[in-house]
Amino acid sequence: MSESHSEFESAPDAFPVKLSNFEGPLDLLLHLIKTNALNIHDIPIALITAQYLAAIELLQELDLDVAGEFLVMAATLIHIKSKMLLPRPETAAGVEGEAEDPRDALVRRLLEHQK
Predict the structure, then answer these.
(1) Tens digits of per-residue pLDDT, 58-67?
(2) Is there a single domain that holds both residue 47 and residue 83?
């Protein structure tokens, strides 16, 4: 073996595999087989394929439009909460400004979205 598997860096988005004799990213499994650290005969390819197909099916069920809308609303809620937690700016007269309540803006956006 010219290279140790401890020196191997897996891709951050590598597909994770769970087998009886290995658990980790698929690219590391391939590396270990190529460097003879694992025997290819001990690897159940059908199980890896089944795990991959299950992951693909799960991705197809995810509605990206709904997920995107959720992320926008979640980010808006976080923004509103941060504004509510910060002290309001004072006007020139020294009285707290009559700035619009950020929750009102969210309600307007939700009503526009429903149209």
Answers:
(1) 888 888 887 8
(2) no
